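The data are quoted verbatim for reference:
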Amino acid sequence: MSDSGLITGDDGLARPAWAASDPLLRDYYDTEWGMPVRTEQGMFERLSLEAFQSGLSWATILRKRPAFRAAFADFDPDAVAAFTDVDVERLMADAGIVRNRRKVLATLNNARATVAMRGSGNTEDRDLASFIWSFAPERTPEPESIGEIPTTSAESVALAKALKKRGFAFVGPTTMFALMEAVGIVDTHLVGSWRRGSSGVW
């Protein structure tokens, strides 16, 4: 491993240590992490999974992702917004997902907030994806080592505040920065990683 934290794989490509060994994480890093997500449903899924990840490893969430999609109607905001107390109990009995009642309730709450945002008539809101993308910074970080990767930004703080104002839960500044990394709003791929600059945004 280099001083930067990059590991060159057997394919000759440099990746951060977290994405270098586990095949699931490696595939996620190579094909999905940091690539632009611009659909409402796609953004709602990422927002939901980031909330469930709080306090857990991303690998845990990624392994449970198919079960999450099945349990939450493929993260269709309209469908999840219509979930009832019966669905909450169904979810709490589903061993395939993270059975945390606060996070389950937050997901239902956030689905309703997503639908409300869409129909608010406020030109600032539009849909969830457009709203979150509106907090993109003018510049992206250029970390050369793991230690240089930020965990929050002025934009993630502002986004968290704006989402909370619109009724969203589990949307703190650190979680929102992780979301911004995951969906391509910022590029925190290490300088030297084969994925650096691959999103087409930066």
User: Anything to note?
Assistant: Residues 101-118 form the longest helix (18 residues). The chain has a mean pLDDT of 95. Residues 6-182 form a domain with the Endonuclease III; domain 1 fold (CATH 1.10.340.30). The two ends are 26 Å apart (CA to CA).
